[in-house]
Specification:
By secondary structure, this protein is an all-beta fold. It is 3% helix and 40% strand. It is built from 2 helices and 17 strands.
């Protein structure tokens, strides 16, 4: 995330957003092209109002700001994270008093189930909107518990402010370029909001390089060679795991408009690929 998002270890939320939903996926998805092969995925095809697959996702439960002043308490309530029965995961931020916080939401992680070094990480998502809402699809180094943050590295594939509904931020965080000072670039959606339809957010990670895409448009790159001497490249040292969350407030999203709740991020799929070796 643009600021520190290190991992520390209701009925309104169950109403899915009313925009067009993707169909349930009956078959494994094809790769984006012949250079990739699928290694891990979740199509979120479970029954309506069921929990995210516990063999793929764990909940990061807690509050206290998450290192950057976030206001929500992340729970494992179905009101905050559930499948909608139409092939999507819904993560909902609620105006709800819970464990001394005024808001609840959910933060899902594959840390205990799946990690990968290098590859293409992509998700098809419709974003929430509104002042103070902070959705994200991102990666953290699997050795965060021992290496610490930002030494473990962080890649923000999709990160958005709810009050800038047409802008996504892609960022890399590491030693000397973390918190409010990552290597980052925005992507501006022409003539629409990310809340109006689903969009594909992706990052391609290889030795010494990271590339960011929205709907196939390449808009940002960071390489080991491009970093200044005081910024150390840490992304070739470890595998990473996947996170999805909707934060409330904090140093990135700012003041919160309580009139906007509930707000939901709807995720059609998450897919991870690895590069196919040539002949």
């Amino acid at each position: 995330m643009i600021t520190t998002r290190f991992a520390v270890v209701a009925a309104a939320g169950l109403v899915a957003a009313a925009c067009t939903r993707p169909p349930v996926d009956d078959e494994l998805p094809p790769p984006p092209d012949a250079t990739w092969q699928l290694t891990w995925h979740d199509e979120f095809d479970g029954a309506a109002d069921s929990e995210p697959d516990p063999t793929r996702w764990g909940h990061d439960i807690g509050g206290g700001g998450w290192g950057n002043g976030q206001l929500e308490f992340n729970t494992d309530q179905l009101a905050n994270a559930h499948l909608d029965g139409n092939g999507a995961l819904v993560i909902t931020a609620l105006r709800q008093r819970y464990n001394e916080s005024d808001y609840t939401s959910a933060r899902l992680s594959t840390a205990d189930h799946f990690t990968q070094q290098y590859g293409r990480f992509e998700a098809r998502i419709r974003l929430p909107v509104g002042q103070g809402i902070w959705p994200a699809f991102w990666l953290l180094g699997a050795d965060i518990a021992s290496a610490g943050w930002p030494e473990c590295g962080e890649v923000d594939i999709m990160e958005a402010r709810g009050d800038e509904p047409s802008t996504n931020h892609g960022s890399a965080h590491g030693p000397g370029y973390s918190g409010v000072n990552p290597h980052s670039a925005p992507y501006h959606l022409p003539g629409a909001r990310f809340a109006d339809d689903f969009h594909v957010f992706a990052a391609e990670w290889g030795p010494g390089e990271l590339h960011w895409f929205v709907d196939g448009h390449h808009y940002h790159a960071v390489t080991a060679a491009s970093l200044p001497p005081e910024h150390r490249w840490v992304f070739d040292d470890r595998p990473m795991f996947v996170l999805l969350d909707v934060a409330v407030g904090g140093t990135f999203a700012g003041e919160v408009d309580d009139s906007i709740f509930p707000q939901s991020m709807v995720v059609d799929y998450v897919r991870v690929y690895e590069k196919v070796e040539g002949p």
